[in-house]
Design goal:
The chain has about 350 residues and is of the alpha/beta class. It contains 14 helices and 14 strands. Helix 1 packs parallel to helix 2, helix 5 packs antiparallel against helix 12 and helix 7 runs parallel beside helix 10.
């Protein structure tokens, strides 16, 4: 007898959600029970996918609060793929309802939200996986293993760059509406860079300076970040969302005994050890679809490759980037902030 199918609901069935839906509908170990989508055209496009797989379209509850209330007892998990500003409230409600959560990137808007979401995860005992392709990539996991093992020595510098013709591609969409997006190119496509660098670094930033340019639009289009990790390693990140038609990235980690190269989605991994003449591709395994990785973690077959703790590290970085930008690029000292006494707690004692 085969294992029972995991019953999943979707909150949001836009373009990215339908990409994941197409994978899930072809699996015998998963069943999409219901969806939540306020856009009639988006739901119609999702219904076509079910028809292509020979399946009846699931019921649609456009209001996400009613969706959770009405369907939580019929679900095992939920996949949340909605505008960034909604992630925290929706993920919290689903965890509270006893559901495991696969959450689209970026995890939340602020470090305070990230901390609160981790507390909810711990209190409810549910699973929370963030759907960042970088952290879920076998290449990034191998790079992280090498860096944490010490075989390459301490990290000295990290250099990252991401570019795309994002400004024109997202013109007129919610991604350029600050109330829904929480940011522009750097918090959308660039969020993969912030997350993968945070993952590879394996530690918090101590100091951050940043400049963001909106090029006359309501959100940032270009940006540059300079930072120092707690260990003293130096980091630069360059984001250009007004490039010619293209979308690419490059991350290089300079360690004492080698150089690693990957991308913000973990699409490659190359290594040059001390004494070698050039970077060489590291043997890797085939990528595993996001939903399959979620199922593997849920079944206890693998550790969570993209836990909310990495999301918290990225959220702290994003908070510092926004603060530095608002202060004209002044350095934000995160270590001093962490050493400062909790005056409110002191007053309560």
């Amino acid at each position: 007898m085969g294992a029972e199918r995991v019953r999943v609901g979707f909150i949001g069935v836009g373009v990215m959600a339908r990409y994941h839906l197409n994978d899930i509908l072809g699996r015998a170990d998963s069943e999409v029970v219901a969806v939540c989508e306020p856009s009639a055209p988006a739901y119609a496009a999702a219904a076509q996918l079910f028809d292509q797989h020979g399946l009846p379209p699931p019921p649609n509850e456009p209001d996400w609060t009613r969706f959770v209330a009405d369907y939580a007892d019929q679900l095992d998990a939920v996949f949340i793929i909605t505008p960034h500003a909604l992630h925290f409230t929706q993920a919290t409600a689903c965890l509270e309802a006893g559901l495991d959560v696969l959450l689209e990137k970026p995890m939340v808007m602020t470090a305070d939200e990230a901390t609160a979401l981790i507390e909810t995860r711990d209190r409810t005992g549910r699973l929370l996986v963030v759907a960042f392709q970088g952290s879920l990539s076998p290449q990034v996991r191998e790079a992280s293993r090498m860096l944490r093992s010490g075989e390459l020595g301490p990290i000295l510098n990290i250099s990252a760059v991401a570019w795309q013709n994002w400004a024109t591609l997202t013109d007129g969409t919610w991604r350029q509406q600050p109330a829904l997006s929480g940011g522009g190119f750097l918090f959308d496509t660039g969020a993969h860079m912030l997350n993968t660098v945070s993952d590879l670094a394996g530690e918090d930033f101590a100091h951050v300076a940043a400049w963001l340019e909106d090029d006359g639009r309501p959100v940032d289009i270009r940006g540059v970040i300079m930072g120092r990790l707690v260990s003293g390693a130096l980091v630069t990140m360059n984001a250009c969302g007004s490039a010619i038609p293209s979308c690419h990235s490059d991350i290089r980690v300079f360690a004492a005994k080698g150089i690693l190269r990957t991308g913000i989605w973990g699409e490659t991994l190359e290594l040059q050890r001390a004494g070698a003449g050039r970077l060489r591709k590291v043997k890797s395994v085939a990528a595993i679809p996001v939903w399959e990785q979620f199922l593997n973690v849920r079944a206890g077959r693998t550790a969570n490759p993209s836990p909310p703790e990495v999301g918290l590290r990225m959220a702290r970085l994003w908070d510092a980037i926004r603060e530095s930008t608002s202060r004209g690029g002044d350095v934000v000292d995160l270590q001093a902030r962490s050493r400062a006494p909790d005056l409110a707690a002191t007053a309560r004692r």
